[in-house]
Amino acid sequence: MSRETIESILQEKRLFSPPAEFAQNAHIKSLEQYQELYDRAAADPEEFWAQLAEKELHWFQKWDRVLDWQPPFAKWFVNGKINISYNCLDRHLTTWRKNKAAIIWEGEPGDSRTLTYAQLHREVCQMANVMKQLGVKKGDRVGIYMPMIPEAAIAMLACARIGAPHSVVFGGFSSEALKARLLDAQAKLVVTADGGWRKDQIVPLKDSVDEAIAHNGVPSVENILVVERTKQKIHMEPGRDHWWHDLQAGASADCPAEPMNSEDMLFILYTSGTTGKPKGVVHTTGGYNLYTHVTCKWAFDLKDTDVYWCTADVGWITGHSYIVYGPLSNGATSLMYEGAPRPSNPGCFWDVVEKYGVTIFYTAPTAIRAFIKMGEHHPKARNLSSLRILGTVGEPINPEAWMWYHKIIGGGRCPIVDTWWQTETGGFMITPLPGAIPTKPGSATLPFPGIIADIVDLEGNSVPTNRGGYLAIKYPWPSMMRTVYGDDDRFRRTYWEHIPPKDGQYFYFAGDGARKDSDGYFWIMGRVDDVMNIAGHRIGTMEVESALVSHPAVAEAAVVSRPDEVKGEDIFAFVTLEGSYQPSEKLKEELKQHVVKEIGTIARPGEIRFADALPKTRSGKIIRRFLRNLAAGQDLVGDISTMEDLSVLDKLREGT
Ligand code: WTA
Fold this sequence. Notes:
Layout: H1 3-10, H2 20-25, H3 31-43, H4 45-56, E1 65-70, E2 73-78, E3 81-82, H5 84-93, E4 101-106, E5 112-116, H6 117-133, E6 142-145, H7 150-162, E7 166-168, H8 175-185, E8 189-193, E9 196-198, E10 201-203, H9 205-213, E11 223-227, E12 241-243, H10 244-249, E13 260-261, E14 265-271, E15 279-284, H11 286-299, E16 307-310, H12 317-329, E17 333-337, H13 348-356, E18 360-363, H14 365-374, H15 377-380, E19 389-393, H16 399-409, E20 416-419, E21 453-456, E22 469-473, E23 483-484, H17 488-496, E24 508-516, E25 522-527, E26 531-534, E27 537-540, H18 541-549, E28 554-564, E29 568-577, H19 585-598, E30 607-610, H20 624-631, H21 647-654
Parallel strand pairs: 4-17, 6-7, 6-8, 7-14, 8-11, 11-12, 16-17, 16-18, 18-19, 19-20, 29-30
Antiparallel strand pairs: 1-2, 3-13, 4-5, 9-10, 14-15, 15-23, 21-22, 22-24, 24-25, 26-27, 28-29
Bound molecules: 5'-O-[(S)-ethoxy(hydroxy)phosphoryl]adenosine.
């Protein structure tokens, strides 16, 4: 976050109370009610979650124990039997919701489709049967590499239905990145599409899958199921590649949901960390179903009349928890949009809001800042009066963007829920409840009931009010990640050892810096580790460095982020070249393209600077702090006496 942003946040005094009529009709109606729930949950979390689990979800068999906590490993609803696809579909079919819209899909260019709960159920059952026919069994992993089309959600729910954990890979990731994820998850089947639409262009998804698994690159993959979307020419390998519409035609729509153990793995989702290798975050069934259901219901105050739209991609946790599982478990109408705002269509989001009468709209601060730049005449030219709640996620929102969102999009009447959470947490951790918690621009406000959050130092001591520290969670919650896939040790090291346990108290280390004000409100300041937040996407500095050094011209690379007006942060790479290579603009472009090939467009460096050497300590460690200062065009902050060769800094400043 930039210094100006931090300063404006520190001075932020504005408070917005929930409108009285809104509060009256909300699930959680007042600060007192929130406080009562919070206190009740803190006093007896197991009882709190058990009551909700019983009331809100269908179980084939009740659990014998609510929580088994062997730090840092938690099991929730031990021996309970449940299926999240059943909770998202079947149970609504015996009610009037059977013919309610489950998914409204607005595609590109100009396509659209609505699936009722009955229709969605039918397609999910068919795809589940097709998966079985292709040899997928309970416990087998399925890779999903899809555009934003209903079949992405159908594939996820079909996996959940038969107990095959899915691993969705964002369609913007390159074939290299896809390969690494499919290999780690040992996926048996990949569900993909011929292509997808992204900003007026076709993304050749099936070609990427072919590249990823070429030359037996991912030996575990036996079959590929291909959804027809863009109709461009693709290769179909006989015996291995199958068109979904061909197999769907012969597939039965009868596929009872498999009763799963509450702790059976529901999905793996890869996210960036401090090393080059992405982590497979593991989520299980019962606790995740409950927590995403309840957070979605209370934080978005979901009602049956709502048209709910989350603009994320299903390839990220936000898409998992708050496009698919949370809303559908609640029987809500969830809108999926394949497009994205771009210069050729700057009003597209507002057209969608107007067309479908969207009532709840959830997006990222980066998008809001981009809209500010595009001009308020675009939203003002549309009727946005259906909106009643706005949400943001993914990165800290600066107060100016918050105010614009509130006034221009929300017409000054819609509460804003700024939801802080992570791939690892599964669901919202710190968020306003819109009828209960007054909001302050830039603050995610208060923890959700059942979440014991604190700002601490590295010894686990709470830091005083308004002092910066590390955001930590001090008690397990139902949708917490269970482990890093195949690597319990990495799970322990990454999340539970930065702040060592003391007196039996464990601290989940979120990797974010934050402070708490005198009202107990949380203000998230951003990552404190080597993870960057580029336009709300998590990217590890090491991932980009590994991509760069895999190019023959690069001897060494150091990657930092620098503040960016729209994206929040942008990638800045310092590179030293191998002897025979000369710096040039052409080489810069080639290296940027190389990163795109290795990771994907989201990781394309904004700037590359060539250098003779990188600033290092005498023990050979790169001093990133200095590089961050240089990238941001600031004076160097901190002690330079530990540096091995001071002349390096001058050369870097001049740079090429
Ligand atoms: C950041 C996305 C400030 C944070 C759901 C976190 C936020 C990382 C907020 C997780 C917010 C997410 N305010 N920062 N409301 N929400 N973040 O795993 O740094 O893609 O650690 O999950 O995004 O990113 P992830």
